[in-house]
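@channel anyone free to eyeball this complex?
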Amino acid sequence: MEEVAHVDELIAESRALSGPAQPFEEFFIREMDRLQRALVLITGSRSDAEDIAQESFMRVFARWDEVGTMDQPAGYLHRVAMNLFRSRYRRAVRELKRTTGMVDRHDDGLGPVEDRDEAGRILAELTPRQRAALVLTEAFGYSGEEAAELLGVKPSTVYALTHQARRALAGIAGGIDA
Amino acid sequence: MPEVRDVLERQMDRTPIEPITVEAFFRRRDSLLRRRRITAAVVAIAVAVAATGLAVHAFDRAQGAVPALPPPRAGSIVFVGRGSAWAPTDNGSVYVYDPASGNVSKLLDLSCTQDAAGHRSCPGVRVNGVAASPDGTRFVYSLAESHPDTVSDTTWTMTDAVGLHVLDLRSGRSTRIVPCAPPSCSEIGSVAWSPNGTTIAYTIDRLDGASIRLVDPDGSNDRALDVGLADARDPAWSPDSSRIAFSAMPSHGPQVPTLFETAICCDTRELIFGHTQRSGYAPAWSPAGTSLAYVQGEGGPTGSVWVLRTESGIATRVESLGVAEQSTPAWSPDGSRIAVISNGRLLLVDPDGGTTTVLTKAWSRVGPVFYPGGSW
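replying in thread with the prediction:
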């Protein structure tokens, strides 16, 4: 037992010198809720958002020794989440088109939000890609170029995707109380 | 005055979620990893049993080269194994079913390797589509990036080999003729080699939909096939190589995948079926050019095989089992059978609605295609 404790101390000491700057658990608690909420907005589905968030954190955890030393580990998390979203979205579009002919249809995720106010309604009318571009640039503060890289599109496409949504939401922004 | 950012932040704050705690995250992670390991083990056993004692083309991740092997026997059926995040031990290898012996062998190996310490290494690519040249000397296949789920003791080797490849069976050399990288290309899907051997048609997928392109087998003359329709995919050559059938979204009416055909120079027209049904995808012309087999969705990710007699315009359902999303029916060279993947199994279907024969167990995914010639 004594020896195990000694090894643990050595590991902790070595991590303090060169390992992650923070424990994974702290990172998880700080980022999970926000990522999950963003993914519900993007995908329109609570279950998809949970799945993507869980998988994203699993991949981050698998490489935490490396990711934890990054200046912006959240950037890596968002990159993984967007890759998963893109992959899942492509598959969903294919399947939806082949089964019902509908695309960009939501499940129960945005339903309750849609009914509440104008902002929810506008967001629900956007495509998942438009919402993703908007969330990345506005909520997460990425530049157009960075968001384009995360979404695998050109910067001009990000601008085109967010243009209509920005205009619509700007109208609301002017009308609500701060 | 609040900005767009404030509106979005407010919306995110009020978005209902079921918060995931650290403890719940680790519990769910353990459960997922356990399930994936079990699935991987089952698939590993199935692949090992199928491939025992048979020669294999091992994909060289660095060079894209494979050792030369005798070409598959005429009339063999080529298909892609089930390679998915849930079955990481085989990431979409290409298999050959030999009708004479009933054996299955690997033509292109994309399965994982495992060292003595149990550490698994897998290629980060999978085969998305495959087709044979009419003279049987070459195969064209599309390699797409895998997005594997986490398996803690697995290393995924990413390569820059994503794109369209031609494998020359005489030299064993595989050459990438079309690269694929975002944003112009998310992945390349189904492929079709023209019966006159001069052109390969392929589906290119992007986040905003799919389109069909044509390229010469040496990679030159890569160009778009302009059909004027959204989400065009699944190209299928007519026997005389003058026309291509495909599925796309119609320009008006219900947005369901619908079958069209186009002459290579121009003139796209919809293929009409009966009175009530319209939707269809994954078309395949019969060798005589008088019938078109295709898949029709049935309210889920799978569908049924139908055969349209072009002269009468009458379509008949010939197989109602769950045909895989990425499976395209393939006519035998003599037109007497249709091969298709259904519920992971390779089936031989009678185009007149007769007996269906099950050729392999449940681990097929993409294809199939008939290797030219044979006694079918």
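from a first look: Residues 22-51 of chain B form the longest helix (30 residues).
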